[in-house]
Amino acid sequence: MKEKNKHxxxxxxxxxxxxxxxxxxxxxxxxxxxxxxxxxxxxxxTHIHKYLxxxxxxxxxxxxxxxxxDQNEIEFICDKVVxxxxxxxxxxxxxxxxxxxxxxxxxxxxLSIFPKQIENVLKYTKDIKDITxxxxxxxxxxxxxxxxxxxxxxxxxxGGVSGLQIACEYAYTIRKNGLDKExxxxxxxxxxxxxxxGMDPFLIKKAEExxxxxxxxxxxxxxxSKILEDKVVLSNKEEIAYDMLLFVIGANGxxxxxxxxxxxxxxxxxxxxxxxxxxxxxxxxxxxxxVVQAKDVKTDNFQSPTAQSARxxxxxxxKNILHDINNRNLVPNNVSNKGILIDLGGPNCAIGQLFNIxxxxxxxxxxxxxxxxxxSNKLN
Length: 380
Hints:
CATH architecture of the largest domain: 3-Layer(bba) Sandwich
Strand order of the largest sheet: 5-2-1-9-21-20
Number of domains: 2
Shape: globular
Helix content: 25-40%
Mean pLDDT: 93
CATH superfamily of the largest domain: FAD/NAD(P)-binding domain
Number of helices: 9
CATH topology of the largest domain: FAD/NAD(P)-binding domain
Radius of gyration: 22 Å
């Protein structure tokens, strides 16, 4: 039940955006925070490659929502939201709970893309955004290392940041265990001409050099068209054998189904928001994180669905809710990507760009670690 004279703020989704938002408002005495998530755990998706290779433990990449909320006097509800009544300010959960709000924050994140036109894609692949599936891949990789059988193959479909980091982490761990590509071959399939499509040439060059150094086979310009039990069929009919297959080709917005025609949704299933991250015409409903389509104020391109963007969106939205409560003008979108950091496997191997400055090696890796610790500390 809502406390008297308090503004009830409901957050749907406990990913980077949702947790960052909670962190900014958890000390506000006139706000009642309610977090709703279908999982009891917050998963640090930026570091799943370390978990897949057994470098990180479950405790390193997951945090307990219940514990965090209990420590910070936040109500936590482990449930799935199935509908939102924007007109009357309430949500309905899978268990038929009805919760009213003064402000609603939609931070439901993204869902991995599995294109339907790829035959059998759902039959032979698993979503790495799910901790149970991560355990499946983690255990399978450990078994491959232990068995040391010749001609084993790990295939990663998708040469973007996540796919590249997973492939490099696997290849580095294979080498660290005294094995080579004759025992376990790691391959990346990327339909575009280069790895890291659309990114700066410096990053692409460094990524390609690292793949060559780690004996990762990179297949460009051809898409996966069909998945069989032990092979991927490419668009040129070439067949790539695999013992373990990971699909990492991006994500669409994880939208809550709605028949409200006023709510605008783009082709990637993301909510289109105004300059304050509100869902027009509902000034008390905001959306942040991967489920949002919003402009980068410096480039005028759409913001990338990254943890960095999610954090900045969350902090701005938290500030604007306080402004709205206190009848102050809202602050318009000021979010712009500061750069990117990519882990390429190993103790001193990472690349990145910060404020348009190229960095690599120890500096890039330690910067990434500091950012990881910064986010982790919010949950401790």
